[in-house]
Amino acid sequence: CEDYICYYGGPHVNFHPYGATKHGLETLTRIVQEDVCILRRRDEGWVLIAGSVCFPSYWSLAEKMGKTLPEIHSLVPQMTDAINEVVTSKIDGLEVGKPVVRFNWTMTNDSELHQPYSERTYDNSINDVRNSLYVRVERQTITKLPGNDDIMFTIRTYINPLAAIIRDITLAKGLHSAIINSSKEVLSYRGISMYRSKVLECLDESIINESY
Fold first, then answer.
1. What is the tens place of the pLDDT at every residue in 28-62?
2. Separation between Cα atoms, residue 48 and residue 72, nearest integer Å
3. What is the spatial distance between Cα 209 and Cα 206, in angstroms, rounded to a whole number?
């Protein structure tokens, strides 16, 4: 593994003293706050070959290890074969030194960062969604490594109370738009379906009050 440089202001980590062992990855993930996964290109596609993950969002590293990206994303709604081909092509075309950033989000009634469970738990008794739900955001980076062209995929997870989102009119409008423009399948996957109407009610109230 070559040196790892965080292009967003983080540390420079020299892996060379560790040689071709797992300890370089372990050391890296003790230094940075991100979880790290390594993908390698094989005939069947990009395969997850290594990882150090402390804060998975409703998945298990052990279950995903050794699988291709389409297999890893098999439960994601609307991830068709065509979209998987586009994702593979985009990763194939990445250049060393030019990382890509994307964000993913879900909603949860549990503020615990460590969620290695494929099945979510829901609380049917929640009425005060403003103070009971959280928006879970993953900041993900995709970086092609020099030397072997493996892909380093990092995940930094943030938990924000829904109440904090509602107080920020820009965030409130963005979340409102995301919810009303998402399919039932996507909302279910993001953990919103059960709370959709109550969350929209809170967001509508915030947006209306801000306009006066």
1. 788 888 999 999 999 999 999 999 999 999 999 99
2. 9
3. 5
